[in-house]
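Checklist before submission:
- one chain only
- standard amino acids only
- sequence pasted in full

Submission:
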Amino acid sequence: MPSCASRAPVPGEDTQEKTVEGRGSSSRLPAWVHVRRDHGCLHEMKALLRGCGLSTVCEEARCPNASLCFANKTATFLILGDVCTRACRFCGVAKGVPAPVDPTEPARVARAARMLGLEHVVITSVTRDDLEDKGARAFARTIRAIKDSIPACTVEVLTPDFGGLRDPLSLVLSERPDVFGHNVETVGRLQEKVRPGADLGRSLGLLEAARELAPHTVVKSGFMVGLGERADEIEDLLRSLAGAGCDIVTIGQYLRPSMRQVEVRRYWEPEAFETWAGLAKSLGIGYCVAGPLVRSSFRARETLDDIRTARGSGDRSPTKEKVWRRSG
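Returned file contents:
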C-alpha cells in the first residue's frame, strides 16, 4: 500500500464531500447498504431480553445487523441503563440524566447469556460521566458474573473512554476480559463536531494503556466512515490505531439512525473498504473487519477465534483482512 504522500486513489474517491440523504429516505440508499430484517426473529429475541429486564445496543443504536445477530442468538448487552450522559451526534441512544446503577444488572445479564446458550458475550454501555468510577465497577461485576455462571464463555467489553482515567480501566482489565474494545468512532478533525465530550488522543491513550496493562488481552477499536472524512484522514487514523497496539479494527459505513442525527455525507463504495483492510494488514493490525454494514460486534466471536488460533500457532499477529458484503 503506498504511503499517504504517494497513495493510490481509493476507488470512487471524489475530492468533494457528498451530501446524501440518511435513512429517512431508503430509496436513496445505495444497493450495498440495504438491510433485510427478520421481524419474527427480532420479536422472539426482544421478548426473551425483556423478560430479563435488559436492553441491547443492537436495538438502542438501531444496528443494521440486529436481525442477523439475533437469528444466531447473539447480542451485545447494554449495561448501566439506556440513557447516555453525552450527546454524540451520530448516535441513536437517548441522551439525558441516567437512572441510578442497578446492582442486580450483572446477574441478569449472566442469566440471559446462559438462557441463550451463548459462548461469547459482548458487553457495552452508555457513557456515565456522572459516576465517580465512570461505570467501571459495573463492567467488572458483569464480566465476573458471566464467567462465574458460564466458565467456558469468552467475554468482550466495549467501553467508553472513562474520562481518560487509568484506575477505571485497570479495574475492568483486572477481571480479564478476553477482548477489550473502545471505539475512536471517526477521524481526528471530526471528533468535536460529531463526538462532543470525547477526544481522539484520549481514546488512543486508553487503547495504548490497555495494551500495556493487559498484554495478553485482545485490544480492539473501530470507526465509521461517511461523516465527511477524507481518504487520507482514514489512512492516518489506521496508522494511529496500529501505533496504539490494536489487534482488531472494524470499519463500517455510518447510517443515520433518524433525522435527529447528523446527516450522511457520503456512502463509500465497497471497494474502498477492501483498500482500507489491505492498508490495515500492511500496518500490522492483526485483523481488520471492514464493510458497509460492519459494526463493532459484527462477527465478534469468529474474529476472536481466528486471533487465538493464530496466537496458538505462534503467530502473534494473523494479519487477516475481512471484507463483509451482504449477499444478494
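Reviewer check: The longest helix spans residues 136-149.
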